[in-house]
Structures are given as structure tokens and as C-alpha cells.
TrEMBL record:
Protein name: HlyD family secretion protein
Localization per record: Cell envelope
Protein keywords: Coiled coil
Coiled coil: 71-117
Organism, scientific name: Dokdonella fugitiva
YbhG-like alpha-helical hairpin domain ranges (all copies): 65-180
Length: 316
């Protein structure tokens, strides 16, 4: 009789035991979104949704024709800038210098003739053998000829001194800009072949063959990681008792099996609790988003399953 009474007492105590503190959430994988680098038509899709892919595996390809044309134009511009810089660095040609010297000699001869003509007319002024207007024209012609001599000598000196350092610097900058533009187009061309950045499973391919997605739109969404993690919402009363590294038991619905994990992140700023994570009095309270890393025994679990996290003795 005493034995039966003891069993009943134990069962009653177990039924009345306070359940461990818990938080609700969902199973998630690290989501990798691959945006469209350019608004080009999809010309190939090499995978299907749900497929497991390796790092570097081709997923889909965009039409490269337009980007190839832009790359060719950028490379031509870079070559033109390279040739212009080479011309600046080489300096003036010997033929240009010879032409400048010949031009200087010609204007010097014209200047000597103009000065001589003015010198012949000048004594005739006092005898009124020459009109004042003719004398003025001769003086102006001599001055104009001297100006041409100075201009021709300056042009020759410019050629003899060679290219200025500032001009070479401008040429180098123009070449660097053209090369950078060509590199940018080359990188963009490489991005048109979309590959998996890491081993993952293809979760979604929003666009189909022949579609033209806008720049930045997700062409593929991957779920990465060896196992999912639990994204849970810690109620405000539990926040002070939950820390990174704490052990947590994750349960899925009414399944008897549970999965052990550890808190890898908990936000410092509260958020409004989603409707599916509301528990009793916590309806009107804020919660703190946390992530619980799971082990390899949870690798086969799909994303999106609702979970319940039990914190053991995290709070009373």
C-alpha cells in the first residue's frame, strides 16, 4: 500500500513540475543570394531547385554579347591612351624641329627686309618725299615681322625643351583610367557566368530561361551550411539568463526526438515578437532574436520547420 502511494506521489509531483523556460522559432539555413550583375537575358540554367552544388559550380549564365562589346571599346580606348602617352614620352620628332627652324629662318628674313624698307623710308620723311601713311605702314610691317620672329623662336624652343612633365602625368592618368575601365568590364564579363560561391543547396531560381532580370535582382538563392540553425525569439524575462555559448535543447513539434545546440548569437536590441512565437503573457512583450547552432544530427532537417527551444535551468 505504501509502495502504491509513493508511486502516485511521484507521478503527481512530475505532473506538477514547472516546464523549462522556452522560446519559439524556426529552422533556418544561411541564405546566399546571388544578384544579377547586369540586365542581360538568361541564356543557360545548369541546375534545378533542390540540387546540391559544390563551390565554383556553374549555376546559370547571362548573355555576354553586350558586355564583350563594351570590353572591346574599353580596350581600344586604353590602347589609344597608351599610344598617346608613348608619343608624349618620346617628345617632338626631329622633322618637326627642322621645320620649326626653317620657319624661324624664313620669318627672320622677312623681318630683316621689313626693317630695311622702313629704314630707307625714314630719311625721306624730312624732305616730304614719302607720305606719312606709307611710313606708318612700313613701321607696322617691321614690327609685325619682329613679332613673327619671336613667335617662331618660341615655337622652336618649345620643341627643343621637349614634353612637359605635367603633360606626361596627364597621359599616365588617362591611361590608368582607361585600363581601370577595361578591367571593370572584364570583371563584369566574368560575373555573367554565375557560379556557386560555396557548397550549398539551390533553394530558389526566381527567373527562367530567356528572362531578363534587372540589375541587383536575385538570380539564385542558395541555402548553405552543413546543418540548419534555429532562429528563436527569447522572451524578455529570459534575456538576462541567456548568453552566447549556453546549451539549448531544440524540439520540433510533438516529436519525441530532440536536438542539442548552443547559442551562437543573441541580439542586444529587442524586436516585436512574431505571431508564431507568442507564448502566454509574452504576447504584449518584446523579445530578442537569437540563433542556436545545431550539430550534424540535424543536417537532414528542412528549413522552415517550427521549433521550440528549451533552456534547461536558464531561468526559473
Amino acid at each position: 500500500m505504501n509502495l502504491r502511494l509513493s508511486v502516485v506521489v511521484v507521478l503527481l509531483l512530475g505532473a506538477c513540475a514547472k516546464p523549462p523556460p522556452q522560446a519559439l522559432g524556426t529552422l533556418e539555413f544561411d541564405r546566399v543570394s546571388l544578384p544579377a550583375p547586369a540586365a542581360e537575358r538568361i541564356v543557360a540554367i545548369d541546375v534545378h531547385e533542390g540540387e546540391q552544388v559544390a563551390a565554383g559550380q556553374a549555376l546559370l549564365a547571362l548573355d555576354p554579347a553586350h558586355t564583350r562589346a563594351q570590353l572591346a571599346a574599353a580596350e581600344a580606348t586604353a590602347q589609344r591612351a597608351r599610344d598617346a602617352l608613348a608619343e608624349l614620352e618620346a617628345g617632338p620628332r626631329a622633322e618637326d624641329i627642322a621645320q620649326a627652324r626653317a620657319n624661324l629662318a624664313a620669318v627672320e628674313a622677312e623681318a630683316r627686309e621689313a626693317r630695311a624698307y622702313y629704314a630707307r623710308l625714314l630719311p625721306l620723311k624730312d624732305r616730304n618725299y614719302v607720305a606719312a601713311a606709307d611710313l606708318d605702314r612700313a613701321r607696322a610691317a617691321a614690327g609685325n615681322a619682329d613679332g613673327k620672329v619671336r613667335a617662331a623662336r618660341a615655337a622652336l624652343d618649345e620643341l627643343l625643351h621637349g614634353t612637359r612633365g605635367e603633360q606626361v602625368a596627364q597621359g599616365e592618368a588617362a591611361l590608368a583610367a582607361a585600363l581601370a575601365e577595361a578591367d571593370a568590364q572584364r570583371v563584369l564579363l566574368g560575373k555573367l557566368a554565375v557560379v556557386a560561391p560555396r557548397a550549398a543547396r539551390v533553394d530558389s531560381l526566381p527567373y527562367r530561361l530567356g528572362d531578363q532580370a534587372p540589375v541587383g535582382a536575385a538570380l539564385a538563392i542558395l541555402l548553405a551550411g552543413d546543418a540548419p540553425y534555429a532562429r528563436i525569439y527569447v522572451p524578455e524575462p529570459l534575456r538576462t539568463s541567456v548568453h552566447v555559448g549556453d546549451r539549448v535543447r531544440i524540439r520540433i513539434g510533438d516529436q519525441p526526438a530532440s536536438y542539442e545546440g548552443s547559442v551562437r548569437m543573441i541580439r542586444s536590441e529587442p524586436v516585436f515578437t512574431p505571431y508564431y512565437a507568442l507564448i502566454g503573457e509574452d504576447v504584449a512583450r518584446l523579445s530578442y532574436l537569437a540563433e542556436v547552432a545545431l550539430g550534424g544530427d540535424a543536417a537532414a532537417l528542412p528549413a522552415g520547420l517550427p521549433v521550440r527551444a528549451e533552456f534547461g535551468g536558464a531561468a526559473k
